[in-house]
């Protein structure tokens, strides 16, 4: 696949970071993992001149997780440190997406809406993506606010069940980011939460996604999709890359000349 604006990859986790995967893939990693590997990436760049495209998940406190969350008076300074840490790699095109994914506990309250507004305002201009696991966030007010700020709403492929992100496919920015979690609705219904993400996408399921990806690409400058379906993530990403490559090749004019 030769489209430089379309990125396919996986969510890196402790148990799969050692799995071999092409450097051309997009990798979604945590903030601490990204910070720890930054010096190593800089050494690689100095010798090889290239690096893997990344989506970096913002620190847990940005996403509303408790104890390390700074007070309102320190928020601007703390977010400035986040911006300073990542800005150079954004400009260099290595960090393509910055993801803030908010949990169920981040409810649609006045306080949380103000918190989100401050975060997005202080990080304006960065390639931000926000995702919400609580369905109450998916309002026309939120959608319009994200469009005004050019912040992407994370799209999810997941079972359409209560407690999981809703089936919303709205493009709010000049970039699109989608996380493919699983379609294992039976595990969710049965309370087998440890198995929800253990899902093997079929070739037919992924082939049906290709037109959506290409449609997003026509409307956006950059499209990222990552697989978070546990042990099957690498296989799914490899298969999706092959399907996209086959589709692109099929659209090329035959004969090699004008």
Count of DSSP strands: 9
Task: Summarize the amount of helix as a percent range.
Answer: 25-40%
The overall average pLDDT, rounded, is 84
User: Could you state the order of secondary-structure elements as H and E?
Assistant: EEHEHEHEHEEEHHEH
Low-confidence stretches: 43-50
Structural class: alpha/beta
Radius of gyration: 19 Å
Strand order of the largest sheet: 6-5-4-3-2-1-9-8-7
Summarize the main sheet. Answer: 9 strands, parallel
- The separation of the N and C termini measures 22 Å
Strand content: 15-25%
* SS field, number of helical segments: 7
Q: Which term fits the overall shape?
A: globular
